[in-house]
Amino acid sequence: MKPESIGIVANLQRADAESVLGRLETRAAERGLALLADPDTAACMAAAESVPAGDLARRADVLFAMGGDGTVLYAARLLCGSDTPILGLNLGSLGFLTTVGEEAVEQAVDALCEGACTIEERAALACELEVPGDDEPARARALNDVVVGWGASSSIVSLDLSVDGEHIATFMCDGLIVSTPTGSTGHSLSAGGPILYPGSPVFAINVICPHTLSSRPLVIPDRSTISIRVGESAKPLVLSIDGRDHPGDITPGCTLHVRRAKCGVRFVHLEEYSYFKLLSQKLHWRGSSI
């Protein structure tokens, strides 16, 4: 791809944000690229056009998410199914989604202009929450995961899990995670879930602190529909979508349906990108010594 414009969203709380934005401006000008940024980011730049964040997907050829993995998740929400690709540029240590370091911002611009990069599509989740008494379900998308659980007290909850209409089990637990391959290195991993290769056509289902020793994570085809019904609960629950709480309480009788979204999220990778190298760095894999 050879873009004519770059959209930018940045976490301006990062210490080096403004200096990296300045370097990006300089290289973009050298390459004849237009820069578009959300209003807060544009205020820190000399030449970027200020654009409402929701319009970046429509106006930009590629979207730079500058910050950490949370900034990339924010960018993915802005895209809302658009095919505009994201390049995650980390202002700090490398993340699972921000795979380009801040020292390589010029290299990233050059690679885009010269076609020295690849585009990878990651699966996303489409969620529908049915609430008793509501005429229409609430809908949302997630790149990483959706989590049902927690709430205002430490009391356990009862969650009924079904896949494609077949009841699997009722879990007394603290919550339940459904993750994409992209999200498998997030909350699910910390709860004992498996690492899924990004291109795998599967989802992971992971129970949080189940009151049984026999519960294990499930890996199912991503063509399946996962349903989670809230059973007995002494408290309203929380529905978390990519780490953000869905407004409103999740109460007994509510049912969450999760399936693969029709449109995923596209990512730009530089030629030297390696998923397994990234895993080794982030998880400090050293292998075994005898």
What does this structure look like?
The protein is an alpha+beta fold and 290 residues long. It has two domains: 5-122 and 264-283, Rossmann fold, CATH 3.40.50.10330; 125-260, Sandwich (Tumour Suppressor Smad4), CATH 2.60.200.30. The chain has seven helices and 20 strands. It has helices spanning 17-31, 39-42, 56-59, 69-79, 105-114, 187-190, 275-283, and strands spanning 5-10, 34-37, 49-50, 62-67, 86-90, 100-101, 117-122, 125-130, 138-142, 145-149, 157-163, 166-173, 175-179, 202-208, 218-221, 226-233, 238-241, 244-245, 255-260, 265-270. The strands form four sheets. A six-stranded parallel β-sheet has the order 3-2-1-4-5-6, with helices on both faces. The protein has a six-stranded antiparallel β-sheet with strand order 9-8-19-16-11-12. Helix 1 (17-31) runs parallel beside helix 5. The longest helix has 15 residues, at 17-31. The protein is globular. Keywords: ATP-binding, Cytoplasm, Kinase, NAD, NADP, Nucleotide-binding, Transferase. Its EC number is 2.7.1.23. Pfam families: NAD_kinase, NAD_kinase_C. One of its GO terms (cellular component) is cytoplasm. It is found in: Cytoplasm.
